[in-house]
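Dear colleagues,

For the upcoming journal club I promised to circulate an example of a predicted protein-ligand complex. I picked one with 6-hydroxymethylpterin-diphosphate because it came up in last month's discussion. The inputs are reproduced below in full, followed by the predicted structure.
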Amino acid sequence: MHLRCGRFDLCLDRPRIMGVLNLTPDSFHAASRHARVDTAVAHARLLIDEGADLIDIGAESTRPGAEPVAAEEEWRRLAPVLEALRGLPVPLSVDTRRAVTMRRALDAGVDMINDVGGFADPDAVAVVAASPVALCVMHMAGEPATMQHAPRYRDVVDEVARWLGARVRELLAAGVGADRLVLDPGIGFGKHRDHNLALLRDLRGLARRAAPGSRELPMLVGLSRKSLIGDLTGRAIEQRLAGSLAGALAAVARGAAILRVHDVAATRDALTVWSAIAPDHPFVESAPA
Ligand code: HH2
């Protein structure tokens, strides 16, 4: 399976690691916040040195309870960092829900748009349709400010699959090739623990049901240090690395193609050891003899 991703053609025969870079003062994981341009750029380079296959840059926190930032402020945070990272040797993704920011990011040469709102901004589909970039379509129930208040589903896998399927159909109808699409169940976005677990357990079923009739689409999973890990382990955000690594491996075993993580080096080590023991899940391109 391949993902058309702007300047790149990303082979998904092995799991890929997307490193998180937050240009925010308020992202839920304090260590991921880089409000200054120089430290943000240095962190992006560190993530690549550690083995990130993609870098995802966000300028608005979407943690539960977060208030939206204005579009101009979002772009003020993004612009100098995108400029400094132009020509990076790995795909650059921008995490935004706004069509106006997508337009500007495309002009700045990014390779992927990651929209936690699933391209629901009325202008978003038209903005991204004719570009060559990859699109991550994530499911979110409600808005970050209120999404965790009372999430309720009759059948969470079925409802998320139907919602993603509708977004996929709209993107395909607008001319987006299926080879540009990645789907994401949106762990923690309007979901309690059992909703998240049901989605992760049936990731392959979700992928199949969300893309009926067309080819199965790759799944991206972001569970790094989230409340799900805290709920399961009782740990604070800073102590959730071990739980996040176990979750990452379990997600790959269930079919995740891309892992969105804060801890790239540790995730890479975990995948390397795991795949050496379970060669049906190749991670290293050529395993040592
Ligand atoms: N999670 C976060 C942000 N963007 N995008 C995708 N596709 N999938 C995710 O699970 C996802 C995402 C939240 O993580 P983070 O960016 O570290 O936090 P914050 O929103 O507080 O900046």
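Two points we might discuss: The chain has one domain: 12-277. The pocket of 6-hydroxymethylpterin-diphosphate is lined by residues 20, 22, 24, 27-29, 32, 58, 61-63, 95, 114, 116, 136, 138, 184, 187, 220, 222, 260 (CB under 6 Å).

See you all on Thursday,
B. R.
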